[in-house]
Fold this sequence. Notes:
The protein has helices spanning 17-30, 49-56, 71-81, 100-104, and strands at residues 5-13, 36-42, 61-64, 84-91. It is an alpha/beta fold and 105 residues long. A 4-stranded parallel sheet has the order 3-2-1-4. Helix 1 packs parallel to helix 2 (49-56). The mean pLDDT is 96.
Amino acid sequence: MENTLDVSIIIVNYNTLELTKNCLKSIFEQTNGILFEVIVSDNGSTDGSIEMIKSEFPQVILIENNANLGFGAANNRGLKIEKGKYIFYLNSDTVLLNKAVKIFF
């Protein structure tokens, strides 16, 4: 498979609605000048995270695992569908304060 994007950002979420919301907001505010995608692999959240992502961040690729697969397995689910030249694993409690993704690229 040919990589069509510069960076794929993969985030695992499990009942961290507010943290994930702040993380996603910071990604889209701070990342420009590169082609990127954001993949959230959700481990069966019941706190409204899935609904929030669908309504507030429709550009995010959402994987609904329907169970808590654990951190590694959830990341691997994202890895299976990514289209980036590089993979940027990001924890849901991270807020980007600068152009970190572009710097990484």
